[in-house]
Design brief:
- By secondary structure, this protein is of the alpha/beta class.
- The chain contains 4 helices and 11 strands, in the order ββαβαβββαβαββββ.
- It has one domain: Dihydrofolate Reductase, subunit A (3-Layer(aba) Sandwich).
- A 9-stranded mixed sheet has the order 5-6-4-3-7-1-8-11-10.
- The longest helix is centred in the middle third of the chain and has 9 residues.
- The chain is globular, with a radius of gyration of 16 Å.
- 31% of the residues are buried.
- This is Dihydrofolate reductase.
- GO terms for molecular function: 5-amino-6-(5-phosphoribosylamino)uracil reductase activity.
- InterPro entries: DHFR-like_dom_sf, RibDG_C, Riboflavin_Biosynth_HTPR.
């Protein structure tokens, strides 16, 4: 994958109706079996560190060196071994106005996400992964350079949307690549129109 600059990349699994999770916040309906799983190697840096270690997948930070999460996305892993620092091979920045904390390569901050992203883009390094959730994606909509969605053949009918409802002007993205798998999963990649 050749990206020209340090980009903010929104990389996430979504349902056909554009949700990151079901109405009860669950995301376990996304299939972890099938031929689409081979595509994970392309985004090895987006696999939790413990999972990649277990699977013998190398993570060299060539794709992403930083991950951004809202508190609710981060909190999914709390209570799971290694969940306090799920992507310890990356610099992890968790945005929260109500929580504090730190861990290995992890910072919880109440700084403005736009200011943080603009500062990160000025640094040298690999791309910045926007892991989720929808509220954070909405706050960063003008900073997102690329969207890569793993669209699963399920409909939640509600839940956590990829972008939270907000009154903003439409943003245009151009289709860069699409890969369809027999599992029914489709990986679609868009770049911001310039």
């Amino acid at each position: 994958m050749e990206w020209n600059m340090r980009e903010l990349v929104y990389y996430a699994a979504v349902s056909l109706d554009g949700h990151l999770a079901s109405p009860d916040g669950a995301f376990d309906a996304f299939s972890l079996e099938g031929d689409h799983m081979a595509d994970l190697a392309r985004f090895a840096d987006a696999i939790p560190t413990a999972g990649a270690d277990h699977l013998g997948i190398a993570q060299d930070r060539s794709c992403f060196d930083t991950v951004l999460m809202g508190w609710n996305t981060y909190a999914v892993g709390l209570g799971v071994p290694g969940g306090e620092s799920p992507y310890r091979h990356l610099r992890q920045i968790v945005f929260s106005r109500n929580h504090t904390g730190a861990g290995e390569n992890l910072t919880v901050t109440d700084d403005d996400p736009v200011d943080v992203v603009r500062s990160l883009k000025d640094e040298a390094g690999s791309s910045i992964w926007l892991c989720g959730g929808g509220n954070l994606a909405t706050q960063l909509a003008d900073e997102i350079d690329r969207i890569v969605f793993k669209r699963h053949p399920i409909v939640f009918g509600g839940g956590i949307p990829a972008f939270a409802p907000n009154a903003y002007s439409p943003r245009r993205f151009d289709l860069v690549d699409t890969k369809a798998f027999t599992s029914g999963v489709e990986v679609v990649e868009y770049a911001r129109s310039r």
